[in-house]
């Protein structure tokens, strides 16, 4: 009884707290503009904090490239900064890419491999990735720079996780900031049929989401915290169209009306527009997602599902109301996700070109 009352009070506080959302967005615009002006010296690019985190997975180390390729992390950060300045949506794509890589064959850059005659249906062509996954050119640009400077040293799998880390850093106005262990190897296996098998679709309920996260060693807190990435980026109408013609009870009717205006009734592969996921602060990686969940203003059933258990609902409220909490948790969960099923020299390699096996 007491705890239910507590959650009610917190929900109220979350709704009241929303008045500050606009101010938060203005602050972002300023931060983004001051981020790294085109052509300006980049020496003031902030460096991740030096707190020493717990030991990572076997074979991985913090500062892994500090001797073999000292500027590696810096190069990747600069390439990501430049890409995000041009289009913040690409940053969302990079964060999603890290997730889609890790959940299929582990964090091994298998999502980057192009189709070849020998492997005509790689992960990249699976429905969760094609045509929606974006940011591949950013990975290519970073890898090209690295290959030029220290050939054969930095794995594509590490580039993907660093790029997501850096995208989170910039899109959060430097609030999500973390050190990332590296030393991942690139995989040689990439199969389309494994995408639908391991990547949860937006129709999933809480039980199904928890099962898919548990299969990858992630828990209920990770699910709630990582879902917060839906505070940026976009979604194709086809990803939630089942929820707008007759809105389910877990969706705000006003949002459904807005979405009906943005999405054509007769969707098909060539006519499938996108909408922003977070209508309040679309390009800012912040805790607005949780406020949206509480108001039922989220696109997917998988988002709304976070309110269907007491445990997850109270985590949603905590992330919505406690300042700074989600940003810290998100950093930790991204590191944990980046350690899924790491390959080694025996079953992996350092690719020369992220799109093809050596
Ligand atoms: C919990 C289960 C999840 C489901 C069911 C899910 C599903 C989806 C779907 C359907 C889209 C829209 C794709 C499109 O139509 O273009 C999307 C976008 C996105 N997802 Fe998730 N997702 C989940 C978890 C995650 C996680 C763990 C992350 C990262 C930590 C993430 C990051 C993103 C981002 C950033 C976007 C926007 C991408 C862009 O703008 O290009 N998602 N997600
Ligand atoms: C995907 O297909 C391959 C062979 O093409 C098969 O060995 C594997 O078991 C399949 N995986 C899943 C999850 O269906
Ligand atoms: C979630 O979906 C599965 C599979 O459709 C179903 O068996 C289960 O009962 C559902 N769980 C909840 C909590 O609705
Ligand atoms: C898709 O929808 C658009 C707009 O309604 C239509 O012009 C086009 O012919 C459709 N394409 C296919 C392949 O059905």
UniProtKB/TrEMBL annotation:
EC supergroup of this enzyme: oxidoreductase
* Biased composition, class Pro residues, residue ranges: 46-56
Q: Where is the signal peptide?
A: 1-21
> Which subcellular locations apply to this protein?
Secreted
Presence of keyword Heme: yes
Q: What is this enzyme's EC?
A: 1.11.1.7
Residues noted as binding substrate in the record, renumbered to the chain = 200
Q: Where is this site: Transition state stabilizer?
A: 96
User: One Pfam annotation, family name?
Assistant: peroxidase
Annotated residues for binding of Ca(2+) 2? 231, 278, 281, 286
Query: Mind listing the UniProt keywords for this protein, alphabetically?
Result: Calcium, Disulfide bond, Glycoprotein, Heme, Hydrogen peroxide, Iron, Metal-binding, Oxidoreductase, Peroxidase, Secreted, Signal
Q: Which reaction does it catalyse?
A: 2 a phenolic donor + H2O2 = 2 a phenolic radical donor + 2 H2O
Query: Using the chain's own numbering, where are the disulfide bonds?
Result: 69-150, 102-107, 156-354, 237-263
Its biological purpose:
Removal of H(2)O(2), oxidation of toxic reductants, biosynthesis and degradation of lignin, suberization, auxin catabolism, response to environmental stresses such as wounding, pathogen attack and oxidative stress.
Protein's name according to its UniProt entry: Peroxidase
């Amino acid at each position: 009884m007491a705890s239910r009352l507590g959650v009610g009070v917190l929900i109220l506080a979350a709704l009241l707290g929303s008045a500050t959302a606009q101010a938060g967005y203005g602050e972002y615009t300023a931060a983004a503009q001051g981020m790294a002006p085109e052509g300006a010296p980049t020496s003031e690019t902030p460096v991740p904090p030096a707190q020493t985190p717990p030991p990572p997975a076997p074979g991985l180390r913090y500062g892994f490239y500090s001797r073999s390729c000292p500027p590696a992390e810096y190069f990747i950060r600069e390439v990501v900064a430049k890409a995000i300045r041009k289009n913040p949506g690409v940053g969302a794509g990079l964060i999603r890419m890290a997730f889609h890589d890790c959940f299929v064959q582990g964090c091994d850059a298998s999502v980057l491999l192009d189709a070849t005659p020998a492997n005509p249906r790689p992960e990249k062509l699976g429905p969760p990735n094609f045509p929606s996954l974006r940011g591949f050119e950013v990975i290519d640009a970073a890898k090209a720079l690295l290959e030029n400077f220290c050939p054969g040293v930095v794995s594509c799998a590490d580039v993907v996780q660093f790029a997501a880390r850096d995208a989170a850093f910039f899109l959060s106005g430097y609030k999500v900031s973390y050190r990332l262990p590296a030393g991942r190897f690139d995989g040689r296996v990439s199969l389309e049929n494994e995408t639908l098998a391991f990547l949860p679709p937006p129709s999933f309920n809480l039980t199904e989401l928890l099962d898919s996260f548990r299969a990858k060693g992630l828990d209920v807190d990770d699910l709630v915290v990582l879902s917060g990435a839906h505070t940026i980026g976009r979604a194709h109408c086809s990803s939630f169209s089942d929820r707008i013609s007759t809105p389910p009870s877990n969706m705000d009717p006003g949002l459904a009306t807005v979405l009906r205006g943005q999405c054509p009734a007769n969707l098909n592969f060539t006519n499938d527009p996108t909408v922003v996921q977070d209508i309040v602060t679309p390009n800012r990686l912040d805790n607005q997602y949780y406020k949206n969940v509480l108001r039922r203003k989220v696109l997917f059933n998988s988002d709304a599902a976070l309110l269907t258990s007491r445990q997850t609902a109270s985590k949603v409220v905590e992330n919505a109301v406690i300042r700074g909490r989600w940003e810290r948790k998100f950093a930790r969960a991204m590191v944990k996700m980046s350690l899924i099923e790491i390959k080694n020299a025996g079953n992996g390699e350092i690719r020369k070109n992220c799109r093809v096996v050596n």
